[in-house]
């Protein structure tokens, strides 16, 4: 009999790491995926020590087109049924669109988009067979925002993730499978430093910066309840509401303080 596991990409730091901690505290067995074996090993040891969790890892770079298949085959060989798939891995591009090499754009789209589709597609048939499964998509409030003059492709790919998640629900809810698009705002992690956009994050008002553990708790609870969309914290629920009702032409007027640099021209 296959053992049930949750698989988390980008699990060695940030929101992915915090999601792993929350799931471990709830008794989930875990498969952690990231690029750094050293970090993954440390995280697994910590989860085992603090939560007595069953935790293993697989080193993988989602920029590699072969990565999703390799991750799936690892789980198959081990006899792990992935009942909860967390598509979390991601980053931002620090340079203007016209200055970013096409190869960098392609890698970005693969990690944040194509790999998400590939992992979902490859793990979905087992969920259908079992008539159960939950998928978490870490999206962003940027999915609801007007286009930005920085990180040009980030908002569009997150909008795509939201629509993809909606499509999964439409197609597979009747089979016992749910997909939850989690849309956090500014979150305190190493995401911005690692992506080269920490200066932008430093200019964001402190009341808009949320702790990763808080985001992870909301994300896990929403996914386990089968919610279609989750926007963590009242602050960003209000912002998304305003984004939906206000004309997009007005957004740059107040975004200079709330999202510094978002509409700067380079």
- Level-2 CATH architecture: 3-Layer(aba) Sandwich
The total of helices stands at 10
Instruction: Please give the share of residues in helix.
Output: 40-55%
Structural class of the helices, strands and pairings? alpha/beta
Radius of gyration in whole Å, from Cα?
A: 18 Å
CATH homologous superfamily - what is it?
A: NAD(P)-binding Rossmann-like Domain
CATH topology: Rossmann fold
Unreliably modeled segments: 192-198, 261-266
Globally, the shape reads: globular
Mean residue pLDDT? 88
Just give the CATH class: Alpha Beta
Instruction: Tell me the total number of β-strands.
Output: 9
Query: Ends: how far apart?
Result: 57 Å
Structure in words:
The protein is built from ten helices and nine strands. The chain is α/β, with parallel strands linked by helices and 266 residues long. The chain has one domain: NAD(P)-binding Rossmann-like Domain (Rossmann fold, 3-Layer(aba) Sandwich), CATH 3.40.50. Helix 1 packs across helix 8, helix 3 packs parallel to helix 4 and helix 4 runs parallel beside helix 5. It is globular. The chain starts with a strand and ends in an 8-residue tail after the last helix. The relative contact order is 0.13.
Key phrases:
disordered C terminus, single chain, Rossmann fold, seven-stranded parallel sheet, 266 residues, 10 helices
Concise description?
With 266 residues, the protein is an alpha/beta fold. Helices cover 49% and strands 16% of the residues.
């Amino acid at each position: 009999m296959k053992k049930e596991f949750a698989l988390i990409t980008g699990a060695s730091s940030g929101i992915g790491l915090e999601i792993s901690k929350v799931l471990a505290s709830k008794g989930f067995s875990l498969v952690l995926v990231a690029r750094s074996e050293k970090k993954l090993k440390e995280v697994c040891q910590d989860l085992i020590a603090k939560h007595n969790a069953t935790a293993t890892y697989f080193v993988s770079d989602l920029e590699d087109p072969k990565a999703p298949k390799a991750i799936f085959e690892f789980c198959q060989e081990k006899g792990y049924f992935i009942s909860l798939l967390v598509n979390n891995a991601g980053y931002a591009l620090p340079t203007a669109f016209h200055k970013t090499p096409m190869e960098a754009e392609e890698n970005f789209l693969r990690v944040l988009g194509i790999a998400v589709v590939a992992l979902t597609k490859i793990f979905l048939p087992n969920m259908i067979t079992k008539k159960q499964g939950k998928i978490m998509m870490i999206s962003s409030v940027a999915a609801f925002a007007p286009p930005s003059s920085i990180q040009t492709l980030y908002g569009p790919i997150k909008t795509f993730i939201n629509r993809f998640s909606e499509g999964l629900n439409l197609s597979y809810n009747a089979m016992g499978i749910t997909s939850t698009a989690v849309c956090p705002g500014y979150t305190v992690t190493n995401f911005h430093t690692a992506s080269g956009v920490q200066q932008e994050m430093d200019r964001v008002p402190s009341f808009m910066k949320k702790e990763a553990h808080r985001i992870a708790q909301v994300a896990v609870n929403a996914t386990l309840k089968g919610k279609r969309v989750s926007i963590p914290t009242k602050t960003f629920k209000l912002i998304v509401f305003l984004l939906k009702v206000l004309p997009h032409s007005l957004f740059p007027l107040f975004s200079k303080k709330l999202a510094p640099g978002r509409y700067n021209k380079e």
